[in-house]
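Let's practice the habit of predicting before peeking. Look at the sequence and jot down your guess about where helices and strands might fall. Then scroll down.
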Amino acid sequence: MADARGTIVLFLTCPGIGDFLKAVPAVRVLREKFPGRIITLVKRDTRYLNLLPVLPELGEIVFIDTKKDKLQNRLKPGRVWTNLRAFAVTAAARADAALIFRPKKSYGYWAKLAGIPVRSSLDYTGAETHWLRDGYDHIMNAYMSLAAPLGITADQAELVSRQIIALPPEAESFGEQYALRRFGGRAKTAALCIGGSIPMWRWGADNFMRLARDLSDAGHNIFIATGPYETDAWEQYHKEIEALPGARWEVNMPLLQVAGVVKRCHALVGGSTGLTHIAESVATPVIGLWAAGDSIWRPLSSTSVTVMKNPPEGWERMSQQERERVGFVRGIPYDMVRDLALRALEDATLFSSNQNRTIVV
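Done guessing? Here is the structure:
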């Protein structure tokens, strides 16, 4: 298959920024080793919509929902239209393979009804010809495995080397000008990613505020960018943060502008959320705060250090409410994170080993 021209359909309908960025290496390897046509199905109702231009390897991008669906995406008629559109595009493609990055029962069946002979997904929903039967160490490896039925593979080191994205010139220019205007007079800049859509993966806004004060007292700049999930934290702390020298807290800044600023930062401290994945993808050093149960999404670059917190005993039996109350990542010691952040800003030896490090606590 990899040596013959043909067509592959990618179901890249993942909702999150991290999902998209961790798929970048696999898509790049696929494009390098598959000479035929690639059609990528995406939805407008994604957080990474503005990042699509940074990955031309996606080939022909087809939106399977309408602008109206984006506004009313929870209504049943909108979902029906999206499914019909997915089937129509898949059938018209006359593809040789469908790679499903976001397991959803209907996608495998649409590909089967369209007569696509190879249907590869992470999970088996009843219509796939290939799927992962074993666990996987990292989501990038899992995404790459989707292309294995085509004879296309890559090891983890090769995937890590392909995860850096090139931002559009306007994003680069914005980041450069922002850094000059806001942070020109002080030492180095730390980006703090205080939020996350899943409460139990959060370190806690109070910890990040304490870290912001300590880093500011040490003479460093602070950049915080938040969205709708962090409204409570912004209301409680933004006046205090913006009173610190060299500190800025931006709310709902456009995604590419945030990426441009983060690229100019000297380190980012954050948990399992989109902004942390953006930092790794633009080669900003990352101090990741992770829970062991979410380790497949951890940073892997050589300029990252991940502090991994093991979950409490019996966490499998906890309800969702209990898990959020316990807050797995919240148990990571503050002093350890502060010291790593200061080393990242002041001591180049933190990342001098040129390999990824994981610290389990």
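How did you do? The two ends are 45 Å apart (CA to CA).
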